Amino acid sequence: MKLARWLMGALMLSVLLLLALGIVWAPDKPVSMLTARWATPPSRFLALDGMQVHLRDEGPRTDSVPIVLVHGTSASLHTWDGWAAALRGSRRVIRFDLPGFGLTGPSPDQDYSLGAYTRFTRRLLDSLGVSRFAIAGNSLGGEVAWEVAAAAPDRVAALILVDAAGYPIVSQSVPIGFRMARTQGLAWLFTRILPRSVVTSSVRSVYGDPSRVTDSLVTRYYELTLREGNRASLPRRFAQSANGADSARIATVRAPTLIMWGGRDGLIPPDHAGRFARDIPGSRLALFPELGHVPHEEDPVRTAAAARAFLDCPSCPPAR
Question: Higher-confidence residue: 68 or 172?
Fold first, then answer.
């Protein structure tokens, strides 16, 4: 009898575990299932380095110095929707999904180092025939942006760093999705299950005001994370991250620079803004005390206005 009860209990527990797993089980989705919703016009795909790179190229082609927008880890070109809407009336605006993220998906060579992203960005702009440009980037995208500015000073007319990576980071708050991808053992699980609550928590953690996070915003992050290969790429990206190893190169940047930061950024602390300002001669600083790690997404109206004012005259002294 005791054995029978034990077996019955084990069976019930197994059933409950299988039901629970079924709720959070989230297989990868082929890109073909996602393009109808997330690659609407003016999206297009460009063949580059063995990938079909998802990009949007908007605004007047008469603009001789386009603005290039580079997203951060686990984001996509959609994070810049507000800035693109504000700028494309007078500026050519180019944005794209980096390898390992968005609809572009994984890199065939699995190289997600900073050097690989920098080379990728320059080759993409070469493919578009863009020789000189302004470039803005958030988080990882900010690190890519200043590396491009340091590597190709003749091509970068202006630089905007939005809560950019670059110096060794000691985070106060790390999204739970990032923690899972960085933890040995959990990384495998992360590629097979994805509770929507994990994405909700992760997005809310990078906003200064979590109430700004909408259900539609979570849906976008959730569905693009499920793009085939993206979850497997994230642990590799973290493993290849040098966490500030190239920070000495920041002082070599000579492009006119705007440093923009959210005062409630728990992922890359706001004191990093001051470090960039000290290391890049003549740079300007714009702080938004109530915003978080993605101020361009959280409040695109005010942050895009600051970007526009800078881009209209990158070499002008800041207004007093």
Answer: 68
pLDDT in tens, 114-166: 999 999 999 999 999 999 999 999 999 999 999 999 999 999 999 999 999 99
| HSE-up of residue 123 (Cα within 13 Å, Cβ side) | 15
CA separation, residue 4 to residues 9, 15, 16, 165, 280 (Å)? 9, 16, 18, 58, 72
Domains of the chain: 31-312 (3.40.50.1820)
Instruction: Say what the pLDDT of residue 123 is.
Output: 98
What are the residues whose beta carbons fall under 8 Å from the beta carbon of 173, sequence distance 6 or more?
Answer: 205, 266, 267
- What distance in Å separates the CA atoms of residue 174 and residue 204, rounded to the nearest whole number? 11
Q: Helices marked H in the chain — which ranges?
A: 2-24, 35-38, 81-87, 114-127, 140-151, 176-182, 186-190, 196-205, 215-225, 230-240, 271-279, 295-298, 300-312
152 neighbors 158 (Cβ within 8 angstroms): no
What are the backbone angles phi and psi of residue 186, rounded to the nearest 5°? -75, -25
Give the lowest-confidence range in 29-33, 231-235, 271-275, 295-299: 231-235
> Using CA atoms, how far apart are residues 80 and 71, in angstroms rounded to an integer?
8
Residue 11's pLDDT is 38
φ, ψ (nearest 5 deg) of residue 209: -120, 95
What gap in Å lies between CA 146 and CA 161, rounded to an integer?
A: 8
Judge contact between 73 and 101, C-beta under 8 A: yes
